[in-house]
User: Which sequence fits this backbone?
């Protein structure tokens, strides 16, 4: 008998599941009101569920819920089958598959799913469904979902090609089939069993940042375990660049040492001009360290907390003292809805720019790209502080310590998250919130209960994240000193570009003209919100600077790619590479 998985308690996964069930219930109620009669297929054996689905379709039910579809080795349970008045070989009507997804936008796997349902319908109605739809979440009370319809013929041939590949693979499964990590590991009841197998097999997937393609190429060369990779010397692997292979081997070797000794180990990476420690600016008393906490399940995402930490003075009233760290101050900016988010963002940018203006040599430190992405998103969404955000990016005042770590130091940890690095420079945390996932769960609990102590727990966690960023900066500087690479030579990544004297006045005039136009339109709206042309004035206000804002994401992506290495560009999902003709 196949062993049953042990259900691991995962509050974040449970939260996502609960939100998904709530969204599906909302979609069901809306479709029931729209379509009228509903037939719900009861749970039970597959054969009985399939037969009940066929009977409901034969009767011409306007809406079928939890339909069971099967053909050959394929089966699926469609959220909804919606009747359409289009003839099929069996009846004067036919059905389309609809699926409820909490996601704000359709993803490839969602389209794959409804396309498969569309093909499985051919078994019953004599032809595949021509269209399918996703009922995507918005989170808005007045409009909790949006419907996106798709022509399934546009994707059917690719889906069938992928399905045939899976059928071939499933028909000849190897006896020693080993699971591989994927994006669902954090939500899977089998994850603990998989971890045990990977550890017992010394699987290559345990090497930090190794990709599936690299694992496949290493295995084809005969390198099938972490230990073998750690001992690799003088071997070439087709499809993996020598410098990438050396990095992977070093990573595996350090992780093997950590596993055997139980203590953290690290090594300094060979110097590449402009990278690694060269990205670190000189410390300044005005340096700032910040971190966002975001809720991806809120419509459009919500940055509900931004914490900022800095070296304060006795009379500094902008923040509160940090326990155990005299001289450090911390400020938490909260937002529980879109209006508060706009106000918190405006205050954040005012505070940051004021502090940085008073300390020309200071920088804004963070770890990983999320903070930079959040600032860009907030500036675009709220159409405010765009020039300030651009100024931070253009003058290199923001420093991503994740890039410094990856280019300067190799650590014997299975992950390069900041939590994994903390063993090198700070004691274990004692806060009730242990991760970003915990923060999200506790924040959702606060939204339901209003209990203020829950916000205090999240604040303490965020404050520790900011403190960790500061201590990591200091630890990296110490490593640079030990390696004889401090202070770094000035370079384009840390030096602030000299300004063109003519440019500021020109940009200032352009910005002031936009702000005047927007202010006049919004003032008229406030003075008479019920005027006949109020809707037009609001549209005009929103359009001020629209094309300029729309162009920014493409330029942001362009400049981000200029910072990436050749290896990182190979793994860029938006780039085309390694295409094979499939038919």
Assistant:
């Amino acid at each position: 008998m196949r062993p049953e998985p042990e259900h691991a308690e995962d509050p974040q996964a449970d939260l996502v599941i609960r939100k998904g069930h709530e969204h599906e219930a909302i979609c069901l109620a809306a479709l029931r009101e729209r379509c009228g009669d509903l037939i719900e297929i009861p749970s039970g054996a597959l054969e009985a569920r399939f037969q009940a689905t066929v009977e409901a379709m034969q009767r011409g039910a306007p809406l079928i819920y939890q339909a069971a579809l099967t053909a050959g080795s394929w089966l699926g349970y469609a959220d909804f089958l919606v009747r359409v008045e289009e003839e099929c070989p069996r009846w004067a009507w036919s059905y389309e598959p609809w699926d409820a997804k909490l996601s704000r936008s359709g993803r490839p796997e969602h389209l794959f799913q409804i396309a498969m349902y569309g093909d499985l319908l051919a078994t019953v109605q004599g032809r595949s469904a021509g269209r399918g739809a996703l009922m995507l979440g918005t989170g808005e009370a007045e409009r909790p979902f949006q419907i996106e319809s798709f022509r399934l013929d546009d994707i059917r041939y690719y889906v069938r090609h992928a399905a045939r590949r899976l059928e071939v693979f499933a028909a000849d499964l190897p006896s020693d089939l080993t699971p591989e990590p994927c994006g669902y590991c954090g939500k899977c009841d089998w994850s603990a069993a998989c971890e045990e197998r990977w550890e017992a097999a010394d699987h290559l997937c345990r090497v930090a940042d190794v990709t599936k393609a690299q694992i496949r190429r290493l295995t084809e060369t005969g390198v099938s375990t972490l230990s073998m990779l750690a001992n690799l010397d003088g071997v070439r692997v087709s499809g993996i660049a020598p410098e990438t292979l050396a990095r992977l081997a070093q990573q595996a070797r350090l992780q093997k040492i950590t596993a055997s000794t139980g203590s953290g180990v690290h090594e300094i990476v060979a110097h590449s001009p402009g990278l690694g420690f060269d990205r670190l600016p000189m410390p300044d008393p005005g340096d700032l360290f910040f971190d966002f906490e975001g809720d991806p399940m809120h419509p459009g995402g919500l940055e509900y907390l931004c914490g900022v930490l800095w070296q304060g003075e006795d009379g500094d009233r902008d923040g509160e003292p940090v326990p155990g760290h005299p001289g450090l101050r911390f400020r938490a900016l909260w937002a529980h809805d879109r209006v508060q988010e706009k106000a918190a963002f405006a205050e954040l940018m005012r505070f940051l720019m004021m502090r940085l203006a008073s300390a020309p040599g200071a920088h804004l430190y963070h770890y990983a790209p999320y903070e930079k992405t959040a600032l860009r998103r907030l500036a675009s969404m709220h159409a405010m502080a765009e020039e300030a955000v651009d100024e931070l990016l253009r003058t290199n005042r923001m420093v991503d310590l994740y890039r410094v770590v990856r280019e300067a130091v190799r650590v014997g940890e299975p992950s390069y998250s900041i939590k994994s690095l903390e063993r090198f420079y700070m004691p274990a945390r004692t806060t009730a919130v242990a991760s970003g996932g915990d923060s999200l769960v506790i924040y959702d609990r606060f939204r339901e209960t209003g209990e203020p102590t829950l916000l205090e727990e999240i604040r303490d966690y965020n404050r520790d994240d900011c403190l960790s960023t500061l201590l990591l900066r200091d630890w990296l500087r110490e490593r640079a000193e030990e390696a004889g690479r401090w202070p770094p030579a000035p370079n384009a990544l840390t030096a602030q570009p000299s300004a063109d004297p003519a440019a500021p006045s020109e940009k200032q005039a352009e910005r002031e003209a936009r702000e005047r136009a927007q202010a006049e339109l919004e003032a008229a709206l406030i003075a008479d919100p019920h005027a006949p042309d109020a809707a037009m004035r609001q549209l005009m206000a929103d359009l001020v600077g629209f094309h300029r804002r729309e162009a920014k994401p493409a330029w942001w992506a362009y400049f981000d790619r200029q910072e990436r290495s050749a290896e990182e560009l190979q793994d860029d999902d938006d780039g085309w590479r390694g295409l094979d003709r499939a038919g």
User: Anything to note?
Assistant: The chain has three domains: 11-171, 196-263, 276-498.
